[in-house]
Records
---
Amino acid sequence: MEKVKNNAIKKVTKRFSDFSKEEEWLQSMLSEGWILKSYDSEDVDDCQYIFEHAQSENLQNIFYKIDFQNFNKKEEFEEYKEIFQDSGWTILSKSKWYSKHIFYRTSTNAQVDIFSDQESYREREKRKMTSLLLYTGLAFIGFIIFIFLWIIFEYAYFGVSGLFLLYVSIKYSIDYFSHRKALKSIF
Amino acid sequence: MIPVNPLSESTYLILLALYQGPLHGYGIIKEIENTSEGTYIIAPGTLYGVLKNLEKQELIETVALEKEKRKKKTYCITVKGKGVLHSEYERYIRMINYSKIIIQGRDGKGEK
């Protein structure tokens, strides 16, 4: 789904179940001259990305990296943000309500990264998997409740809602397994 | 000593950086980079993840530094953390001594 508002701004709604693929896609948008300005904090559904047409000439030196981290307090996010900014990264997530954090920085070294060991990649997948498992479970519990309501009250509405939640639950579990696969591929 | 799983290299370096005194997040990265003369550079995502894990395991804790103008979260190593660091350090020494026997051949101390 792509919507071009005017020449300078592009909105894209997309869903990824792989951090590297998402980074690659952002990188490919960059090579077409689109630099990511913001994205929404929605973790459960598709993500809306807002790109701006880049004016800068050295786009090939910009690198995107993604982290996944949940925060309870505003201060935790502030500290997180500060550590990355001090290290030279620009953070695009805006508040503690974001779980997915997209960063970019300019560098002459293409190997530049927000992680310096393999363990960190494993931890990122594990954090994402914990979230997905929670969503899968919640959606599935919702499905059971609605099906019960449907059986008791025989309102078609309950049945439809129940089936929708089952669909959502399956969607998350597919994402979960895709991240588990990614986790297993890290050595 | 408490039996601990081998620490990851990043975890060890971060505990080591806090051994001398409290530091804030980015200060730890700089300390490791400076002291190791650029041999070890911890990336921010790795640092944050390790700090949270160490905090959970109570090997480090946050301290309030009143001197600082801006309230940056500062970490310091706990007694438990020092214990873990020491036993890990001793483990490294044992590994190195053993490796020396194999790789450099029997040393000239006449022990064997």
---
Amino acid sequence: MEERELITRVLAGDPSAERALYDAHVDRVFRLVYRMAGDMDKAQDYTQETFIRAFSRLQSFRGDSALSTWLGSIAISVTLNGLRKVRRRNERELDLDAAAPVGHTVREAEPDLKVRLNQAIDDLPDGYRAVFVMHDVEGYTHEEIATSLGVHPGTSKAQLFRARARLREVLADFAKD
Amino acid sequence: MMDDRLDDQLRDAARDYNEPPETPREEMWAAIQAERAGIKEAETTENDLSVLPIRRFRHFRRFTVRPLAWGAGIAALLALGIGLGRLSVHRPRTTPAPVAVAAVAPRVSSTAYHLATTEHLSQSETFLTLFKASVRGQGDERLASATARQLLATNRLLLDSPAASDTRTRLLLQDLELVLAEIAQLSSQPRSRDLQLITEGMEQGGVLSRLRTAVPAGTSATQGAL
């Protein structure tokens, strides 16, 4: 079924078309959200929120971009907002925990590249991380990323360049080995 | 050379970053359906109450609407009277139990959130009204993107607030976020097609009319003026 026809049927209230739209896009949305959230519960919540918003706003979808790109932009917005909220809550809890510091003297083994890389990606600023995950991990094009994040393709390229540079910097000692 | 090797290692290792499990399709679909059914129900209930003023303005000559409008007016007056009465009654001071303090805190927070939201919605309504008038009159929209960015920041704070529990307000803030983001992204020389798409988007989503409905009368400076 053509995308346009599917949208028209969803707007007309056809439940089977809603399900077809969901089935066609849920894997891609869930993959992206999970990569960003790194947690099953959050990934499910954000994916659900993405589709709830998409169905309620489908009328305003103008068709300037592919439906998958439009869904990606909602998914990334929902995910980044959700993660910001979680981070703020965690910071508040950490402030309380910091009041009673406990000496942590256990020396951990030097993590391997994969573990260090995961940590380094987690530590990237949201914008860089989104571009890095979308491009290098999930294979989105710069045009898709730009539309999803509401930036110019040049900005997406620049952010990817900076994200990679930062990761190289953090993991530089592996290059020396 | 070393950079190239590290880049290759990075790319390989990044593929495993937060490797997603199988998509729990059915579980999420059931949750989406349940949530949407809840939203529809909430909207139906709210619409029954909120369409009255709109109907009154559109069909003010139709007799059948008048009793409803009068009823709503009397109910509002009664509520106001009861509220004022309760506030003005002098009660002897009693030492509040500790549990009462805990019970009051969320209400204060919710009131503060409500006030902040009303103020924000009022400012957004004024801004969008002026923006729309400016587009019609071929005015200078460049300043609009700066204002939209400020409003967008407030909008996101309100959406992220733990007090944002009202479904209707959340949906309005979410739709408003989309419009404000579009205006915020306007370049220094916006194309007329961009402006047209933004105003069309506003109209399709009924954002401005929903803002006017959400903002209490008298809060906005431009309400009904343009």
